[in-house]
Structure formats: C-alpha cells, structure tokens
Amino acid sequence: MDPRNILEVAGLTVAVGGRRPPVQLVSDLSFAVPRGKTLAIVGESGSGKSVTALSIMRLIEYGGGAITGGSISFARQPGDTVDMAALPESTLRQIRGAEISMIFQEPMTSLNPVLTIGAQIAEAVSQHHGKSAQEARAVALTMLERVRLPSPARALDRYPHELSGGMRQRVMIGMALSCRPSLLIADEPTTALDATIQAQILELVRVLQQEIGMSVMFITHDMGVVAEIADEMIVMHGGQCVEAGPVAQILNDPYHPYTRTLLKAVPKLGAMRGRRLPAKFELPDTPPATEVLRDTVRTQGAPLLRLDALTTRFDNHEGYLGRVRSRVHAVERVSLELYEGETLGLVGESGCGKSTIGRSILRLVKPCGGRIEFLGSDIMSYSEQALRPVRRDIQYVFQDPFASLDPRRTVGFSIAEPLRVHGLEPGQAVEARVADLLRKVGLTPGHATRYPHELSGGQRQRVCIARALAPRPKLIIADESVSALDVSIQARIVNLLIDLQQEFGVAYIFISHDMAIIERICHRVAVMYLGQIVELGSRQDIFENPLHPYTKRLMAAVPVADVARRTQPATLFEGDIPSPIRRVGDEPEVAPLTAVGNGHFVATHAVGGLQYQPG
To answer: pTM for the whole thing?
Structure first.
C-alpha cells in the first residue's frame, strides 16, 4: 500500500441477492484516498456511490449485500494496514466511529428516535475515547456549537423528531466528527442544508483536516460542493469508475462523455436572468426545447390558497412535571397567497419554518392561530373526515423519502394507494397508471415490485414524487423534493413538474435550499428567517434585485462548480445563532412587510443584526 494513501480500494465488486438472482451493484472498482486530502465520488442516483461507502464500512452486509471480490486496504497506524473486507466483526467495531466515521444520507433513519441528541453523541465519545459521562456531554455540546446548531445546550436534551431535517443532518455531522476520525466518509452530508450552513460545515471539515490530518471521502451530486472542497474526484456510472483525476482537470476539461453530460446538467445560479417565467432545463440527450412556455398563473379569480397570519408553535415540556416553560416559534403570523398554476418558492436556513408551513397547511401539525383558506373555505376548522378530499387535492412530497414510505409494502403498492383510497381508478387500470407514473419520474415499471430498502435515496425520492402525482392534485407541496437527486434526474423532475403545470395548471409550494432550482422553477419567492418572511417578490425581484441583507447573504453562499472561485464561508451571524425557542410570554417581534415595488415586499426590522434600510 502506498504510504501516501490512507485507503486503497482495489477491484471491489459488490452484489445483492434477495428474491432475484444476485445483481452486481459495484464492479471492479479501484481508487485511493490520499492522506489529509478529500476525494469526491460523484455520479447519478443508483450508480453505486453509497454502496461503495457502505462496503468500506462493511455495513452493506446488513442490507442484504455482499462483497464478492476485491480488497479494501485501510492504514490504521503507520505500518499497520488491514483489509476491511476480511476483518472480523469485533475489529470492525473498534474501527467504526473511532478511526472511520460515516455521515449517512438520511439522518432521521440514522438517529435513534428514543435517545436524546446529547446522549447519542456522548455515547460515541464515551465508547471510543473512554471519557466520563460529563466529559462526553461537554464534547457533544462543543460539536453542536461547531456545526452551528441554534441553542446547542437545549438541543442536547431534545429528540430527533423535535428537530428539522437540516438540524438533524448537522447533528449527524457533529456525531461523526466528535471522535476526530482519521477517515471521514460523508454520504451526501450537506444535501438537507441551506447554502450558508453548508458553507460553514465545509469549512469545519477543512479545519479538522488541518488540525488532525483527517482524510475525507465525499459522496455528492452537487458539483459546486465538489469544486469547493475536493482535491481528487472519481465519476461513477453503472457501478464502475468512468473517469478519475484532479478536480480542476475534470471540471474544466472532462474526457468521458458521461462526465460531460453530468456537468452540462448542473443548474447555474443566474442562468434565468432577464426571464419572467419558469423555464425547462436543456437536457444533453434531448433536442433543444423550441416550445414557448405560457403563463399558467390565473390571477383573475380568488387565490387557490390563502394564509392569513398563520402561526404554529411547539411546546417544550421541561422538568419532571412536564411544565411548558418555553416554545418553538416555528411560524409567526405568515400571510401568503398562491394562485392556480403558480409556483411559490420558500427558501431560508434549516429550521426557519419552511417545512412547518407546508405541514400546517395539510394540518399534519396543528397551527395555533390564523386562517388557511383553500378554494375559498377555511380548512382550519375542518374535521379529519372533512379533510380527506382536501388531502386528495393537496399532495405532499416529504423531505425524508425512506421515512415516508412503508418498508413492508412494494413501491407499486405505495404509488397505487392514493388511487385506491380515493377511488380514482378502476381496479384493472391502477397497474397501468403506476407504470406510467414510474416512467414519468425516470424509473421503470419493474421498480414497482421492489421494496424501499432495495432502492437508492434518489430513487426513493422519485417514488414519493410519483405517489404525489397519482391523484392529479391541484396543489403539490414539495419539501426538498429534488435535493436528494443527482443533477440529471433533478433536471428531468423539474421539467416534468413544469410540464404538468402547463398541462393541468397544478400549483406548487416548492420548499428548497437550492437557489438555482428555485430560480428555475418558481414564479414568486418568499425568503424566511426564524418563522417570518423577510422578503417576498417575483423570481426576478429576489434573484436580480435582492434587498434584505439576509437574502443577499443566502445568494452569496451558493457554491459554484469552479475551483478557481473557492470562497470563504458566508457566516450570517457571529457568536450565538438566534434561536426560535423563547420562554412562555416572550413574544417575538413580527415585522410588517413594506412594499418596495410592484409585488416586492421587504421586512424592515433587524434580523440577527441584519437590517434593511429603505432608500
């Protein structure tokens, strides 16, 4: 083994069995991770990226897979090299977490739901470093502070379900880094994070690399992140490596046709400048689009959806008696209108209340104030029975696809379920409808017989999108619906959503941290912070003339797929991060939105020291 490398994978072949004959997921894969450097692995969903990571940790065996060939050489100490593929489980337990840590793609399914955040991080520190409970808790607090979690001391005693998806991802990152491993395997670690937190997490990884000489294997589909952090990269397709080399060389002068196709599909912030309406992506394998998209927004009648001073808070029960002494002010007096055929984007940092707005609309969480009008009726007072037809017309694509799919049911059953529940298709037509929906989202009818655990994260997300499309709803709330998808599938899904809007006039609330996707698909954009809207306007207003300092910082933090433009992290706030948790009776100031243009509104109050000054 080359002493300059910490990990060398040679001829790795991985297969999965089950009901069908064994299928090779990775074939004859070879690469190396240099000491103190970052290797990025990129490729489409299902290309074998995550399977490779799980194989290195020998976790693939718990998912029905097996390493059928090759070696995985890991340098534990100078002169002490082991083959991970041949080690007994007892030795693997010593290495996992302490010497090789992994950040998993889906944080909700990776965190223990019955243990607090602090207990889970402290457990890893105690087990691998022999620290006392008090010392381990102190390390846990330090890591939560370093991953920029609001109110880290309180977060120690909270459970995973009490945190947003982005916050859970930061907890996973903190847990993986707490033992200061020599090799970090990061599987889509910043997928659920907004641009500002992502930039700070990437900087944290860089700092740890310098402090302890940590090596990183970074799996991602975000080429901007690759350009920002990686030294070397390999491109995977169909379980094989099709191109490998320095990041700058591959990004600037890709050799393999697949790599060129992948890079062409990368969404670029600013590509929509001067355009008023959404526009489809130009896909490399399809003829250039010649159709002119029509304006689908119908503003003549009443809005499809109206939120008036919507407020959603969550009680924090503290002490042995469970008294409510503080509350999470998730959404504070938000007012919005959405018209038929319109796409409204909700952007902001994780934990700002974007997902809570979506869940409040469907009454999946209980609002504590305001009105929700859908098709002219206030659904806040509806019974569960009265909500059934509303939930047929409003479909939700959840952020965590694995948690929202029944692991005991096939993919086909999950997609067909809303058709059967609402009686929308006769029995014999359901199967054909499911096959058609799978094709539309870039899968095959054969996927209908598979179970969620047999699919990649990106494939599961496409299944969730197909399920949402099944009952032909009037409104789809897409909560980070394309964040787990690789860039080419991402572009196809965005094009599909635009086609459906053109054909059926469906409206979307598009919740995302990906500013380039928001710019491409949305008519209007609302920028949120701490449960409030700080700027609201047309896509052109927000992206071409942002006025609130918070909006400007969000734009500046978006990574670009260009090594020459590596930036310093855009830190929004120094010191303690402002938190949505307040003591009972401590009401937040809710700033009115001031009109600064036709349909362009900005909050004029200070947000964590950032304040818009009119004029």
So the answer is: 0.77
> Which of residues 116 and 264 earns the better pLDDT score?
116
Task: For residue 456, report the phi and psi dihedrals to the nearest 5 degrees.
Answer: -75, 170
pLDDT tens-place string over residues 578-596: 778 888 888 888 888 889 9
Q: Alpha carbon of 566 to those of 231, 233, 244, 515: distances in Å?
A: 12, 16, 21, 18
| Domain 305-559+567-611 in this protein, CATH class | alpha beta
Of 279, 311, 253, residue with least CA distance to 539: 279
CA angle 568, 574, 577 (to 5 degrees): 115
**Percentage, residues of the chain above pLDDT 90:** 35
Distance between CA atoms of residues 25 and 61, nearest Å: 13
H helices present in 281-394, as ranges: 354-361, 384-393
Cα–Cα distance for residue pair 29/462, rounded to 1 Å: 27
Closest CA to 537 of 481, 590, 603: 603
- pLDDT tens-digit readout, 229-246: 899 999 999 899 999 999
The SS3 assignment for 516 reads: helix
**Phi, psi (deg, nearest 5) at residue 210:** -70, -35
Q: Answer yes or no: are the C-beta atoms of 141 and 156 closer than 8 Å.
A: yes
503: part of which helix (H) or strand (E)? helix 487-504
Q: Which residue has the higher pLDDT, 47 or 31?
A: 31
Domain spans in the chain, listed from the N-terminal domain onward: 5-105+184-264, 305-559+567-611
> What number of other Cβ atoms are within 10 A of residue 10's Cβ?
17
Report the alpha-carbon distance of residue 534 to residue 553 in Å, rounded: 13
∠ CA 541-544-545, rounded to 5°? 60
Cα separation, 582 vs 328, whole angstroms? 7
Cβ(166)–Cβ(349) below 8 Å: yes
CB-based contact 126:136 (threshold 8 Å): yes
Beta bridge partners of 317: 324
Same fold, 5-105+184-264 and 305-559+567-611: yes
Q: What are the beta bridge partners of residue 511?
A: 346, 479
- CA 272/CA 449 separation, integer angstroms: 40
CATH topology of domain 5-105+184-264: Rossmann fold (3.40.50)
How deeply is 587 buried, as exposed, middle or buried, from its count of CB atoms within 10 A (0-12, 13-18, 19+)?
exposed
**Whole-number pLDDT of residue 482:** 81
Nearest-angstrom CA–CA distance, 255 and 244: 10
Two structure tokens written together for 564: 């020459």
